[in-house]
Write a structure and sequence with these properties.
Largest sheet: 2 strands, antiparallel
Strand order of the largest sheet: 1-2
Oligomer: single chain
Shape: flat
Strand content: under 5%
Length: about 140
């Protein structure tokens, strides 16, 4: 008997709300020891929480897109997965910079922040993913 609408594949997939909860719990569990000393600094804690939220969302989207890539194996989804992983990397860098654990890294030749270069790579990957999608629709 044929599966309609991918019903058989849904049994293997993880619920996205559960995956988001697990991702959030793991990230908070890992970074909580780094955040606790900064709780008494009201202006600092909001900045840290902003990057913590960005890191959590980026990691979740990267994980979801990776699971989609494993299922579909499409180039467009691979580009989006690598883009979300780049976004996760940038958020980790921003978080470590906000905590004064890791200084802002500059590329010495052009004096450009590494995080900006990674963001440019991320946007490029998303753009390539969109272009790849539109080319596939035209039969190319």
């Amino acid at each position: 008997m044929q599966n309609r609408g991918g019903i058989g594949n849904r049994e293997k997939s993880v619920s996205k709300p559960i995956l988001l909860g697990l991702t959030t719990a793991i990230i908070i569990g890992v970074v909580a020891p780094l955040v606790i000393p900064h709780i008494s600094h009201p202006s600092m804690i909001y900045h840290i929480l902003l990057h913590l939220a960005g890191m959590t969302i980026a990691a979740f989207l990267g994980l979801v897109s990776y699971l989609a890539y494993k299922r579909v194996r499409g180039t467009r989804i691979l580009l989006m997965t690598i883009g979300f992983m780049a976004l996760s990397s940038v958020e980790i860098l921003y978080f470590l910079e906000a905590m004064d654990i890791f200084p802002t890294m500059h590329l010495p030749i052009a004096n450009i922040e590494l995080s900006h270069v990674i963001l440019l790579v991320m946007i490029t990957l998303f753009g390539l993913g969109v272009l790849k999608n539109s080319e596939a629709g035209r039969g190319s």
